[in-house]
Amino acid sequence: MEKIIGEPKKAFMTGNETVAWACLAAGADIMFGYPITPQNEVMHYWTRLAPKYNRNFLQTEDELSAGFTTCGAVQAGKKAFTATAGPGNVLMQEPFGMAEAMRLPVLSIIQQRGGPSSGTVVYSQQEVTLTTYGGNGEGHRIVYSTATHQEVYDYVIKGFNTAWKYRFPTFVLGDGYQAKMREPLEMYDPQDKGIEIIQPYPLIGIPGKIGEDREPQHLCNIYSLEEELYEVVMRVSAEYESISPEIVEFQARNCEDADIIIISHGVVSRAADDAVKILRAQGIKAGYFRPITLRPFPQQQLREVITQSGAKYLLIAESAYGQLERLIKQEIYGETVEIETLFMPGVGIIDFDIIKKVKSII
Amino acid sequence: MEMLAPATPKSWYLPTKPHKFCPGCGHGITLKALGEAIDELGIQQETIFGCDIGCSLLAWNFFACDSTQTHHGRTTPVMVGIKRARPELITIGYMGDGGGYSIGSQHLLNSAVRNEKVTLILVNNTNYGMTGGQMAPTTLPGQITETSPYGRDPETTGYPTRGPEFIAELTPEGAYVARATVSKYKQLKRLIRNAIRNQMEGNGFSFVEVLSTCPTNWRTNANQTWNFLEEKMEQYFPVGEIKSPLGKGDK
Lengths: 362, 251
Ligand SMILES: Cc1ncc(C[n+]2csc(CCOP(=O)(O)OP(=O)(O)O)c2C)c(N)n1
Ligand code: SF4
Ligand SMILES: [Mg+2]
What we know:
The complex is a heterodimer of chains A (362) and B (251).
Chain A: E1 9-14, H1 15-25, E2 30-33, H2 40-49, E3 56-59, H3 63-75, E4 80-84, H4 86-102, E5 107-112, H5 128-133, E6 142-145, H6 149-166, E7 170-175, H7 176-180, E8 182-187, H8 226-247, E9 250-253, E10 260-263, H9 268-281, E11 286-291, E12 293-295, H10 299-309, E13 313-318, H11 323-331, E14 338-343, H12 351-361
Parallel strand pairs in A: 2-3, 2-4, 4-5, 5-7, 6-7, 10-11, 10-13, 13-14
Antiparallel strand pairs in A: 1-8, 6-12, 9-11
Chain B: H1 26-41, E1 47-51, E2 66-69, H2 75-85, E3 90-96, H3 97-103, H4 105-113, E4 119-124, E5 127-128, E6 134-135, H5 154-157, H6 163-170, E7 176-181, H7 185-200, E8 206-211, H8 215-218, H9 222-236, E9 240-243
Parallel strand pairs in B: 1-2, 1-3, 3-4, 4-8, 7-8
Antiparallel strand pairs in B: 5-6, 7-9
The complex binds thiamine diphosphate, iron/sulfur cluster and magnesium ion.
């Protein structure tokens, strides 16, 4: 594979620029996109870089089109990606549904902004429900929620691999802060870190003469009979469940003896991490748990942490009104630990907010 | 010496003035023409003003008329819904070239085909202004934008959309279709007024594209801005009435 970065090197850049470089390094062939803040600069950097590395770009007429063109390019065997936010993410749920139904390895970068509707163009964690379960089906997709630019770089590369290995649509869920902030990171070519890049392959337009070497490919996502669809959904569900343990990622710190475990995801987990350190220094037994994959969710791991610690409380902190909380509740149904919440929809959360909340509970 | 304040249309909502468009932006000129047209036709009370997402949204509280802000590209169907529900209201939709010709093009096309009795004003500034200057359907060949950093290449991205021309083809008799420019104010106001009159008379779909300026994203000074509008845009996009059921007397 072509080397883009050369020797691993330090960089200081915005998250959107990081996405463009990571897509190049991962060997992405083409981006389809439609302008929307705070994702625009992914396209701006990609349109500047792509021609120099013989990669392609198309600005489509809207996000429905950006999503479906990405589906088409993936079917044709190219590593294609898109990036969007907010109302664009809403429109893309239709093509994402096709990707779920037809197992298309589409990679999408979502930079969450405030909602509903046009909301704000700044920041939120309000696209969790939409990104994890936005399709008219069971939510057979993989969602990584990143917290730093290094992770943005790492998980964009990993995301392409996950998508093409397991053939589920895959998402890197960022937000306006990650998109627009500058931060240091290390860029590298995946092969230099021992990461094997999974090569894309076509689902249609494949080699061999139809009628002689092979049957024609007939891709389809609609069924005449209830039972046919039932079979497909059950088969896909079983497969999704069987691969989930390989995909699930999380972080847990200071949970062993914790009285209260703070759960957060994305950038908020950085505030939670700081808050736990400060609380520990003050003698308060706080723990930190962060799902990195929101789909599939680290259910088993969270249950174990709750049981082993014997914690009295979970504190769920998010820049949304209960979207992470709903995910967690459905995953840990039956646990008796008390659940407290810090909901700050559409605004940032800092360590102080979490510390104050913890002290009001304990 | 005391400065003479420029006359303000009666239908403007004064608590929101001065407005928030960038200096040199054509949106302000277009909305002044629209305000004067509303005044002259005496329809402030029955007008419903609807704006898109794009810099047009900065007009959400611009007029002393009942107003609604919609989604990017969705102003047309919202206006159609209002008009179908309450035909006595005068619905004026206001949108950008990205909103109208790109993401909302299906709505524009189909409402034109159905000859919906709404008035739409579309501001063509050859780019996506609000999101920071990306390529729009109207971006001129060779024009540099954030997503055509090496200049728009018609080979891969096609030629600029000539909206009024295609809408004229789609609509039956009774529709009103025109293109104006902020460099010719009197004509701009006349064409907007005609497009509203045409709705009031119940003739059909009424559409005006307005060639406009975006110095912020074009990164042009006053002279360059005006030159681009008059030399480049007006060359590519011919100005005037393309289709009108109204009497010649008003021309
Ligand atoms: C579904 C959706 N996609 C994208 C956006 C982001 N967006 C906001 S304004 C805009 C472009 C506006 O351009 P135009 O319609 O030409 O109006 P202008 O700002 O140039 O007047 C875009 C793409 C959005 N709000 N909703
Ligand atoms: S960005 Fe352009 S279109 Fe928007 S207000 Fe400024 S000059 Fe006008
Ligand atoms: Mg525009």
